[in-house]
């Protein structure tokens, strides 16, 4: 007989927190629209972090795989990678970097804000990543 279970939704705490990267996975982008987006947006990266002070609490962040800067703004993937490596990457290092396994287990600070959606539900939004 199949059994149902209740899994309580845990809202990550707001504020600045020290976190450890548990995993990075390439997944299908569920918001991909081939009529509006280029083929490189078909996949995205899913970054899973664990709060240092609350190891049972995790937070997921999604990004493209791009380690780039556009109009002076760093991509989310580049911001997270540099925070985890605790250094700013040179152009050469950005070009050569591809092995995300070296990031797993590294720590950085992330800043979380609680935001209310149209339905009135409260969600966590990651605003920033900083060197630990």
Total number of helices: 2
Stated plainly, the CATH topology is called OB fold (Dihydrolipoamide Acetyltransferase, E2P)
Provide the succession of SSEs. EEEEEHHEE
- CATH architecture heading: Beta Barrel
Major sheet attributes? 5 strands, antiparallel
Total strand segments: 7
Structural category: mainly beta
- Helicity, as a percent range: 10-25%
Strand content: 35-45%
Strand order of the largest sheet: 3-2-1-6-7
Distance between the ends: 48 Å
Question: What integer is the average pLDDT?
Answer: 90
Q: What gross morphology would you assign?
A: globular
The rounded Rg comes to 16 Å
* Level-1 CATH class name: Mainly Beta
Number of domains: 1
Query: Which spans have pLDDT < 50 for at least 5 consecutive residues?
Result: none
Overview features:
2 helices, 132 residues, globular, two-stranded antiparallel ribbon, mainly beta
